[in-house]
Amino acid sequence: MPTLVLIRHAKSDWSATRADRDRPLAARGQRQGAEAGRWLAEHGPTLDVAVVSPATRARATWDLVAEELPDPPPAEIHEAAYTFDGEDLLEIVRGLDERLDAVALVGHNPAMEELLRSLTGEWHTMPTSCIAVLRWDGPWSTPDDVELVAHGRPPT
Prior knowledge:
The protein is of the alpha/beta class. The chain is 31% helix and 19% strand. A six-stranded mixed β-sheet has the order 3-2-4-1-5-6, sandwiched between helices. Helix 2 links the parallel strand 2 and strand 3.
């Protein structure tokens, strides 16, 4: 049963005059990322891989999450995950190796909310550092009958 863990990047620092892709995490985002990692360590599945957007804030979020996991999986920086379109993320999910049981996907809004709605048929917000855990029967390529088993943002 595939398990997909969606993680929206933690709060970024808008005070820096940098390109969107290069924005770092704010102090609050650093706290959020670590808290998300602690929540996953306690409640989440054992992950096989993390697919991470190349944006600085997404990579930094994953680094903070991974530091809290007892056995962090390898991270794959995936250029296509730097998107604001849920259909692009759905293509990533459909293309995952069928041998993988649990995958984290670290990305951006509105793509994360659109992907979540596409998979569940319901609208759920994905504020910064929000986590959604989804399971379904069948292969990654045809996510059907998706169950949202956890959704929210750990307290910071």
